Amino acid sequence: xxDLFLEAEHAELYRKYRxxxxxxxxxxxxxKLTESxxxxxxxxxxxxxxxxxxxxxxxxxxxxxxxxxTLMLLDSVQEIVGLDSSDSQIHQAKIECGDKDASRVxxxxxxxxxxxxxxxxxxxxxxxxxQAIHWFxxxxxxxxxxxxxxxxxxxxxxxxxxxxxxxxxxxxLNREYIDESLKDSPIRxxxxxxxxxxxxxxxxxxxxxxxxxxxVQNLDSTVDExxxxxxxxxxYRTYKRTNPPYPDVLEVFRQKLQKCVPGxxxxxxxxDFFIVFGIKSLK
Length: 283
Fold this sequence. Notes:
The protein is α/β, with parallel strands linked by helices. 42% of the residues lie in helices and 23% in strands. It contains 13 helices and 9 strands. The protein has helices at 8-17, 23-38, 42-47, 68-71, 87-97, 115-118, 138-148, 168-181, 186-192, 196-203, 223-230, 234-242, 249-260; strands at 56-62, 77-84, 105-109, 124-130, 149-160, 164-165, 208-212, 216-221, 267-279. Strands 1, 2, 3, 4, 5, 6, 7, 8 and 9 form a 9-stranded mixed β-sheet that branches. The two termini are 33 Å apart. Residues 60-156 form the Methyltransferase type domain. It holds the Pfam family Methyltransf_11. This is Methyltransferase type 11 domain-containing protein.
């Protein structure tokens, strides 16, 4: 995981400005786990069924960041463990969690490539990774997941593309900023192709791979809120570290954007979400 997320200030901005995940994503993931469990032999189906409260036994949220997605699993999973390699992100995740069913949610600073050391074989129903798989050593991570997932268990990789704006002028300005600021970022291609390359790698490890592209999220925000979101991007943090004497590119973008937006007008943007599933063999 990038050391860009180790900064306490960055972790706080991440919790404040990153978009919240639509609940429909977690409903789709829950249905996928229900489908895969229903295909198990009767003995395993009984072993891995939901509890009396209708929840699965255990899920991991790997690369959990500040915990927004972790907490969305509370309705469907009894025990949830959020893992991240950044102490600062884990600190913010605990703040995000507060006292929401604290006995059912744990946050740990842990390496994604060591989950088989921390959890028993066949002990996890669901592994969730939201907008983070581009940071991982994917081949080794996928093998780790296969060890700890139970038969019919699901690895769900959630991502979202770059934002689009309804206003053509603002959208063009935004595209120009993104194209310039991400021009040297290898992460851009992973997100732009909606995990197409990730799917190829996943198929080398998981016998069944599926995807869902049905979720679109529409968001309203002020200029300050959108610029705050952009300030959480890793490429911007890199720029600030490596170019301290130069003008702040994000502040320049803010000024250009403000000229196009009257007063405190609301910007309307949308994100296209995609979910890639790796399903462990049913045997």
